[in-house]
Amino acid sequence: MQTTNINFQLISNDLIQLNKNLKKMVSAKHPILFAAAEHLFNAGGKRIRPSIILLISKATIKKYQTISILPEHKRLAEITEIIHTASLVHDDVIDDCEKRRGIETVHNKFTTKVAVLAGDFLFAQSSWYLANLNNIEVVKTISKVITDFAEGEVRQGLIHFDYTISIENYIEKSFYKTASLIAAACQGSAMLNQCDKITQKQLYLYGKHLGLAFQIIDDILDIISSSKTLGKPAGSDLKNGNLTAPIFFALEEKKILYQLINREFQNTHDTKKAVNIIKTTNSIQKAKDLAEEHIQIAQYIIHQLNPTEATKSLLLINNYIINRVH
């Protein structure tokens, strides 16, 4: 498995095995659930989250360790990807998305009921495997993420088409939606290597800021990319009332956007019109600058670790995330 613009030679074999293990881990006795889970993982994905976990395990290895990536690290990487995938299934149901990663969403291919059950099943599987890590600190850290996801969805649901919220509110929502899992997984990886508390906290902050940058860039791409590139319809966030950084910055320049938001993009070409208006403003650059601030913090933290091939790869991930917007 390869990720665009990132050389993962250090962990390439581990990622190949991870893809195989994911399908085994989500196998279900009921054929429909199994088909739904298999459909998800056949869609691929960049596997950014598990890659980060595996690289942090290498970056924080102790001199006396004979194995750089422990079996527990590999399992944590798999658990993290299952949790992430479960959240996407529920997201797609809530937002009524037709496509994800270029293929039909689970609720579109099967039914909404099957999709909700598939998401619940994946969360349950991840919890079971998490408990079997037999590391109470890691269990506490990762299990909190599932609560964060739920809180993030509730918060997002309460502020649909609400342009009165601040950028700070937006960042907080983005933490619950995306950054929480990456932060907890980074900390968990450090915990498994028995790193000191300061290093654990620093790597939590690394994951947090990387995750926030990732979400901001995703929100920019929702505006400027084609449906083919996104693997889902462009402007989906706007249409669903999820107001993001580019929109908030664009509102400062183009007051006409308030009218479109107030009528919830109900007219046929409202979404397309809003996207075109946003593109004429400085909002995309301002949003990218915001993402860059978070990436710079993430870069700084990685530079505090002993320089290795693993830390070089982590820095490449940082660059990849910010450079998805050209």
UniProtKB/TrEMBL annotation:
Entry-linked InterPro entries: Isoprenoid_synthase_dom_sf, Polyprenyl_synt, Polyprenyl_synt_CS
Entry keyword Transmembrane helix: no
SUPFAM superfamilies in the cross-refs: Terpenoid synthases
Cofactor or coenzyme needed: Mg(2+)
Pfam families: polyprenyl_synt
Record-linked CDD domains: Trans_IPPS_HT
Record has Metal-binding as a keyword: yes
UniProt xrefs under NCBIfam families: prenyl_cyano (TIGR02749)
Family recorded in the similarity comment: Belongs to the FPP/GGPP synthase family.
Protein name, entry field: Prenyl transferase
Organism expressing this protein natively: Ceramothamnion japonicum (Red alga)
